[in-house]
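Obj.: predict assembly geometry.
Materials: sequence records (below).
Method: joint structure prediction, all chains together.
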Amino acid sequence: MKKKWSKVFMASALAAGILAGCGTGNQGASGGGGNSDVFKLGVNMELSGNVASYGESMTKGIEMAVAEINKAGGVEGKQIEVIKNDNKSEAAEATNGIIKLTSQDKVNAVIGAATSGNTVAQAQIANDTKTVLMAPGGTSPTVTVDEKGKVRDFVFRTSFIDPFQGTVAANFALDKLKVKDAAIFSDNSSDYAKGLTNAFKETFEKAGGKIVGEESYVAKDTDFRATLTRIKAKNPSFIFIPGYYEEVGLIVKQARELGITAPLMGADGWDSPKLVDLAGADALNNTYLINHYSNEDPDKKVQDFVTAFKDKNKGEAPNAFNALGYDTVYFLADAIKRAGSTDSVKIQEELAKTKELSLVTGVLSLDKNHHPIKSAIVLEYKDGKQVFNTKINP
Amino acid sequence: MDWLQQLINGISLGSIYALIALGYTMVYGIIKLINFAHGDVFMVGAFIGFYAITGWGLGFFPALIISMAFCAVFGVLIERIAYKRLRNATRIAALITAIGMSLLIEYGMIFIRGAQPEAYPDDVVPNKAISLFGVQINSQSLFILLTSIVLMIILQFIVHRTKMGKAMRAVSLDMDAARLMGINVDKTISFTFAIGSALAGAAGVVFGVYYTKIEPLMGVIPGLKAFVAAVLGGIGSIPGAMVGGIILGVVEAIVSAAGFSLWRDAAAFIILILILILKPSGIFGKNTKEKV
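Observations (raw structure tokens):
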């Protein structure tokens, strides 16, 4: 008898579980509206794991912007409340995070994640639940456009896209560094690096440059010496390394140890204070990176931001991720203001219409694919410091 | 001279695998347990070395010794807490405990200090490029190779020239007979864990200096690779672990040098599969009959 009861109990528990699952699903679908007097902003960021430094930096920027907006009266009379979720730098956790934020916390909009892959992992849920998803730094085209080329209506971004960064790198190498041949050493496990590699190759070859070697690695590798020795044998006068700082730091260090003296260049994935620790200041000389933003940009808006950020963070200067996180909040706030409502569908419509919005990371206009058209900056490492080299307009 | 450069790359990597593999092989040799937590002792060693260097401002050798000492104690603790009471349990129970122990150490470390990576300072070991026969050899990699070789020589001395080493060999041959001969088996097993873990700790510091980046999950892949190296050399055999480690490092360098860098990890595990099919006892392993 006892056994039977336990079976019945199990069955009902299971059924309850399934029903509960349905319930949250339905609530999720209608989420986004909300009549409360706060505007809930979900922040689904990489607060631990592989690229934690990006997520932490962006969150800092976001919190600073939110504090400023709240001080000035909030959005549409509502204070913004930030609800953070750590996606541990993993795509699956990012998906779980947005499900939790939309169904449980009932946020009005989500900012995150720092990388393209972790943002794409959330895009479907954002569209299904009609929640605005803002990616501060997702530079892959697939963040706002799906595989079939259809625009994801509810997904927006603040940063420019990979092909643009790859093109900038190729043009910079050809025009400023005057090189004719280049090698590529790319992270094969990330969409980000693949997007950059393709764009770089296309632009470089079209302009008459020659790709002498193309090698790849996978994230988490620590030994690149064998592959670098292979690249060295081809004697390229420029090496393009699209990747993230964790591996790039080791690659730069090991490349210099093996006697590779050619200029090395990467994109915004290089931007982390950890890069200098990992590679060493000497090894980083004669390397370049593309970025969204520079502290040394003489623009007044940038300098005001730098001063305000330093005041809040014990004199620490902001990096590009701080700036992107900061801008993303203003990008969203601007749309809410124009919409005159916190309804996610109305916000979404206004976001898509954004034109010439002046932000810290440049003047931003969206094209029909939600790709921002804005300027890029090339920085050079000199003795472990990023030095403003040139600003490249689209 | 590319091949020479690649050979040096491979041997440096291989000597680190060898240091870790020694711990695997010694523990297996003595209690027939594959100690999957060994890769994580390696990780703990790397962090202890890091804190000794950056926190206390010590040099490479003091940091190496502190890390080895800490890991020796840590290894014995793991054995006393997790494995000792399972000595007469089935081997699968001990194996699963080892996997649990490994996860506990990894995520315990993340709990304590977070998952963000740390970078070893650059100037711990003289870092100069030496040009030899047209090959760029980094003084660091030479230094590290020498450290590994010296440690292995010391190990050989302990195992073959000391009383404790004799006891270790006796216990690995036949635990019951050794006990009958008056050998303190528990003490011998703890000693084996201490030595194996100390070597893993040393490997951790060496890895940190050579590859700069350390993080709480850094032990997983080197741990598995070292396991492959131990099996390749013949698990339970000390020279086997050394040779297996070096071979594995060189094979990985060759695979990358041939332009198949994405296949490097696959190559290591293909070796594992091949050796298990073709010669399960490994290069130095003896074909022992199953005891009845």
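Conclusions so far: The longest strand of chain B covers residues 129-132.
To do: check interface contacts against the pulldown list.
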